Amino acid sequence: MACYYDEHNCKPLAYGEQPDELLHLARLLLDTGVGIELQIEFERLFPGERGKPPASKAAISKLKTVKSFSEGEKCPICLKEYEEGEVVKQLPCCHKFHFSCVLPWLGKTNTCPVCRHELDTDDQDYEEYKRQKLQLGNYSQVDNTPDFHREDLGLNSGHCHSRKWSFSGLP
Amino acid sequence: MANIAVQRIKREFKEVVRSEEVAKCAIKVELVNDNYTELKGEISGPPDTPYEGGNFVLEIKVPETYPFNPPKVKFMTKIWHPNISSVTGAICLDILKDQWAAAMTLRTVLLSLQALLSAAEPDDPQDAVVARQFKENPDIFWLTAKHWSHAYAGAPKSYPEFDAKIKRLVDIGVDEHRARVALSSYNWDLEKATESIFS
User: Residues B104-119: pLDDT tens digits?
Assistant: First the structure.
């Protein structure tokens, strides 16, 4: 059974501490999905006003360093062919880039330049928004999580190689 | 301009020139100046659309921060489409705004614009008048878009009745383009269009 406090995303009050009623109200509203609806409405009214936040420093430092091995393979950002055995950075979705090319992009937005796979951010509001969007999606959709998301969740072994796209939701 | 932007455009340029879409005359890119900051794009109107047979010219400006920011693209050829301004040629397309990704290229942008001509998004309009017509009078929208494609993009001739109405206004001293805009905006109601011009 989930702990009450975990489930409600809060901590028990310390001795003598008073509850913050406004905070509770705000949480209640967010939990009922009002937050996500406002966000979606905001995005509809002001498209492009709020881009995705930068990737977190931790997510960037966790990127795998791999050697490029297939001939003619290019960095999707500068479009230059990798030199043989050149060391490049690999995102969790298996897309590879020169570190110097992908770094400025991830400093601007947390998505893979090729497939939009999202890295973690340092933006707490955005992370909450993502969590709620996922929750909302879970009610209305079947599981069509691409394999690389499953890898994040520890569902696959996590080898990239030259595997082509495969979606677990498809027959 | 930053080195990475110039280097990328040079590589992309080769990619587009060699692509099979260019061979099929579906898309085209040309340099406008020597420093690769401005280009001229061209897309052909997709089949089974009112733009078929037309050739649409685009202005492409490459920012210094390319490819980390999208190129600035607008239609130079006048076009009747819910997501493109019939006045300025400005385009409402997410990948040219917040949905841009650094791995996109001139080729994918031009192909996306061609796809936009095939599949308009009237609920996210750039031109409200066109979008309303698209939803409320789809048949008139189709004929109007086809008429504009003929008038400005060299597509085959369409509906002679529209030409006759424009001629009526031109004969009383109205500029041809102005007459076309007024008639298109009022679903080719000659009386209402005339009223809008002279009020």
Answer: 999 999 999 999 999 9
Task: Report yes or no: B52 and B142 within 8 Å, Cβ to Cβ.
Answer: no
- Beta bridge mates, A96: A90
ipTM value of the model?
0.79
* Residues B63-101 pLDDT 10s: 999 999 999 999 999 999 999 999 999 999 999 988 899
Class level of CATH domain B128-198: mainly alpha
CA of A55, closest CA in chain B: separation in Å? 14
Mutation for B interface: A79, A116, A118, most B CBs within 10 A: A79
Candidates 3.90.1150.10, 3.80.30.20, 3.40.50.720, 3.10.110.10; correct CATH number of B3-118? 3.10.110.10
Q: Is B92 a catalytic residue?
A: yes
The values of phi and psi at residue B110, to 5°, are -65, -40
Q: Are B73 and B112 in contact (CB under 8 A)?
A: no
| Residue appearing with tokens 């947390």 | A110
Instruction: Check A77 against B67: CB less than 8 A apart.
Output: yes
Contact A77 B98 (CB under 8 A): no
The residues spanned by each domain of chain B are 3-118, 128-198
φ and ψ at residue B38, rounded to 5 degrees? -130, 135
For residue B62, what are its two tokens?
């490459």
Instruction: Please name which of B52, B5, B60, B73 lies closest in space to residue B29, comparing C-alpha atoms.
Output: B60
